[in-house]
Structures are given as structure tokens and as C-alpha cells.
Design brief:
Chain lengths: ~240, ~220, ~220
Amino acid sequence: MHKFANPTFFMKIANGIFPWATGISILCFAVGLPLALIISPPDYQQGDTVRIMYVHVPAAWMGLMVYGVMAASSAVFLIWRHTIAHLVARASAPIGAVFTALCLVTGMLWGEPMWGTWWVWDARLTSMLILFFLYLGYIALGDSFEDQERGDKAAALLALVGSVNLPIVHFSVEWWNTLHQPAIFGLKGFSVNAAMLQPLLLMVAAFQFYYIAVLVIRLRAELLSAKIRTARFNLAAAE
Amino acid sequence: MTIENFPTAVFCGENLSCRRGGRSVFTGLSFRVTSGEALVLRGPNGSGKTTLLRLMAGLARTASGTLTWNSGDIRDDGPAHGARLGFAGHLDAVKPALTVQENLSFWAELRGANQADVTQALEIFSMAHLANLPGRVLSAGQKHRVALARLLLGNTQLWLLDEPANTLDDIALNALRNVLGEHLQRGGIAVIASHGDALLAQANTLDLRHFIQNKPIMAAA
Amino acid sequence: MNGFNAILRRDLTLAIRNQGEVMMVIAFFAIAATLFAFGVGPEANVQSRIASGVVWTTALLAALLSLERLFAVDYDDGTLDQLLLSGVEPVVLVLAKTLAHWLTTGVALLIAAPAVALGLQLPATGYGALMISLLLGTPILSLLGAVGAAIVLGARRGGVLLSLLLLPLYIPVLIFGAAAVEGAVLGMTTTAPYAVLGGLLILALTLCPWAAATALKHAVE
């Protein structure tokens, strides 16, 4: 497994995966979007509004999953000091933040017709909002140090602290929510039948491979900027 | 203050390399100091003298290579290594709100020294008259003397000094020379980063210029 | 244990010498709560309805305000290097400093809280729950805060950054702290929020010192 820690080897694999990930993602979007937005049946209760779910649900899952990837690679970075693991975490953060933002926006768009208001402190939406704040904190922290290596370690530790906290936050918000709004038709009231499952899974796959493709692009950029940094240091040292 | 001698000890570094900000500072550096010896680190700015001292203290991490005390890796027991070493870096760690006496007493308590040790350390660096002044009124040189006086608390065998002669007047410089000489005589070890004149009549020197290697570390795809 | 006591006593001495800092935290607490009163208007029943939440929120913000300096002062003047080299386990160091922080800031907030709650027309039945929930909750704020304060050492704009990192992590404490007070006001049982706060405190006590110690070691590298 430590073989993967070598950036050259890692990028070789990543570059090999890239065209496949891009292709599959485009294919899934091409089939999944028309299925989800036009062909699939409307919900008996929510009508056409249910179609927002085909974007909202995968976005929520991706927001959580990318944070999980970030936390896991941060742990690998802190334990074995593999720089590539941190680069994966660092490159993932903005992607995860955008997925989470997408989940929030679609949740609001769904909320307007269903709840009659743009924002309700629904337990899931609120948890996603806090997840979004955690992403913002991670991104801000990583960019706040003159010493890049120090920033890398601080950010990795924060990702781990956040991952321990996230379930606690979710549990607290859920408890708080039932305390204050016992009977609300929440976002979880989305029962899936077979006709809906197919486009949903296609959209999830499309999001997954989209993430992988963008991750590879961002990793390339991270490695290039690391090269530039090193070159600058060498110039300063050679003067 | 304890006058008994230190047990014989060997402090070794083997094939050390260190990186800072994505470039290696030095590489392939080895050294060996034994009881009663001093090692003077020399080299131009940016050659890694301070970094090497921080590595020796166990504060910073090596990119490769090992540091051993009597053939035990110093990383294996950080607190034990800390307890045997006195470190005087660029920063003096003097609290402005505490008096000189209180500043030193705190470190004495942490390191198991007593009040008599504090009084003696103050006298050695001729600061007995400053004992009740708060840290905030001290000059740079006086603060530095407090930092050096801290070395005398807690019977530390390994001293790591970063430009210890900076900001010292002649009297303090003499005191430092005496203290260092006594330390080595007892079987202590000192590693001193210095680009100024010699503090000690005889010491091994390690010129970091031989190990500088500004090579990029990050092998990118 | 020796080290724990010494560090605790030193930090408390420093807090007493620099009383202004604790005073500022209390002043902030009072002023922020006053702002809420201006924001919602002088109507007593509106204020008493939101009092539990406002007291908890402002107490939390006040605690946050004091955390930036928890390790930063020692980091800037070199004391942190010396502390980590003094033979004391880093976890013990974190525990001592965090306890000192809670004994100054946390306890000060506890003392000021009834007065602030009185100003916001908190009904009489809520005070017991307010004190118990703050007693259980403020140590969690200090412990989580220690992790945040250690993580941002050496960062630019440490203060704003610290708020950004810590506020999301503080949400569970706020939820259960305020819920306990509100529950007591409404005459409901408060066992559940107390139990959760107690559980969170134990969890924070086991995990936070370790995380903060790791961050401190990284900070001096």
C-alpha cells in the first residue's frame, strides 16, 4: 500500500483512471438527467417537485462521502506522513464544499413549494449546513499559514476533529429538531419506488465519477503548484 | 547545586537530513559528541544551524536519519530526552508579568530543582539584584541572561545553545564561559550554534556548509 | 503531577496579574447580551422567551474570545518550546493549561451568568438549570477550544480563523445547554440534556487533550 504513496506512481494510476471516470460520468449524466427530470413518474404527493431529489440526494451523499475521504486521507497523512494523502484531502475539500452547497440550494428550492418557505431548520438540512461550515473552516485553515507544511498538518488534524464531531452534531441537531418541531414533513419523507430508484442510482454514479475526474484534475494542479514552490525555494537558495 | 559528575554519555546523529518548506536544508549529516565535549555548529545564514538544534532537542522531525542518546533513539521517549536537556533558543521565554525569581522558580519546579539552585543561578549570571523585577522591564541582554540561567536548573546533561553570546556584555560572556567550562568538566555535553568568535578554547566544529543540499524533495509526476 | 501543578499555578498567577483579560471577557458577555436586548426590544415576555438561548450563546462567544491567547502567548515568546522540553508529557501540559483557562474564564462566566440572565428576564425556575448546564458545558468549550487554539498556532488572522473552526464544533454544547435551561423554565425534566452534556464532557476529556497535544507538537516542529 505504501507503493501508492509515491506521487509519480500515484499520478500514473490517477491519470489512467481519469478518461474512464470522465467518460462514465458524462454517460451517466446523459442517461440519468433525462430519466430523472423528464421520463420518471411524478410523485403522488410532491408532484414534479420530487425531481429536485435526483440532484439533492446524490449531492448530500457526496458532501458526506467527500468529507469521509478527506478525514481518512488526513489520518493516513498524519500517521504515515504520505504527502499524497494530504494532497487528496486538500484537493477534495472544495469539491465536497460545492456538493454540500448544491445540496443546500436544492433543499431550499424543494422547500419553497413543499413548506412554503425557503428555509426550514429541518434536521438534515441543518446538519448539511454545519457540514458546509466545517468545509469552509478546513479550506480557510489550510491557506492561513506561511509555512505550508505546518498548514497541511493543522488542516489534517482539523479534518479528523471534524469527522469525530459530525455524528455528534447530527445527533444534536436531530434531537433539537424533534424538541422544537415535532411534526414536520421532513426531507427524509422520500420513499423510493423502482421507477425512481433507477434514475437516482444513475445520478449517484454520475456524481461519483464526476468527483473522481475533478479530483484528478485538482491533484495535477496541486502537484504543479508544489513544483513551482520548490523551484522558487531553489532560486532563493541558489542566489 | 549538584556538583557530582554526569554519567558517561554519547549523543549521536547519523545520516540526518531535514527539510523545511519543501526543500531539503541539509542531508547526510552525522555527528558524535561524548561526555565532556562541545560541538560548535558553523555555517552561513540558512544553512540550518537552528533547525539542527531543534532536531537535536526533539522539537523538529528529521526527514531521515536517527538521533541517539547512548544508542537509544531520542524519539522513543520524548519527555525523558527533554528532561536531560537544556535548550536556549532565539526566544528567551521570559514572562513579562512574572518577576525574574518567579520566572526561574517555575522552571525549577518543573525540572525538580530547588530555590537554592535558583538563587545560585541568579548569582552566577549576576542578576541577584534583578530578582524581584518583573520580566517586562528587563533589557534584551538581561532577558537572555535569565534564559541562560535556566540552563543551570535541573541538572541537565545536554545543552543546546543557539547563538548564546548574542546581546551579552563582557561580564555575562565571561560568566557563560565559566559555566560552560564547568558543565563540560562535569561530563556534560554542549552543542553550540555560533557564527561569532569562539566561546570555548577547544571544541569540535561541524561546518554545515558541507551538508547543504538544496534539492527539491517533491518528486512530481 | 508536579508539572501539572506548576503549570496550573503559573497560569493562574499570570491570569491574576493580567486581570484585565478576564474582565474583558465578562464585559463582552454583558455587552453582547445587552445588544440582544436592544435587538429584540424591551418587552419582558419576548426577552424571557429567548433568555436561555441568548445567555448560552453570548457565554459561548465570550469563552471563544479568550481562547486565542491560550497557547499563542507561550508560542510567541518561546515558552511553549521550553514547556515541551521540560520533561512534562504534552497531554499533561494541555490539561493543566485548559484547567487554568476554565478556572479563570469558565468560572468567571458562571459567576456573571445569573446577572446577565436576570437582565434578560429569565424566569426564576431557569437559574438552577442555567448554572448546572454552564458547569457541565463550559469545560467542554475550554477543551474543544484548546484543540482549536493549538491548531491555529502560527496562522495568520488566528482569531477570526479560530471562530470559524470552533463555532460549528460548539453547536451540540449550545443545543443541550440552552435546552436544559428552557426545559427547566417550561417545567420539563432536564435529565436528558444533563446526561448528554455529561457524556460530551467525558468524550471531550478523553479526546481533546490528545488532539491538542498533537497539534502543539506539530506547531513547534
